[in-house]
Amino acid sequence: MQLYFDHKGYDFAGDILDQYLACHGPDYEYIIRPVNVAQIVKTGAIKAAVESQLTWIKGEAKRNGDRGGAVQEITAAWEPVVVTDDSDVVLALGTFSVAVGSDTTVQKSGDKLTADIRYRVYVYDLYDFDKTVDWWSSDPELAVKKGLNHDMRQLEEAGWARSFKARGNTESLGDYTWSGEL
Question: Which are the contacts of 45, defined by CB distance < 8 A and separation ≥ 6?
Answer without folding.
Answer: 81, 82, 83, 84, 85
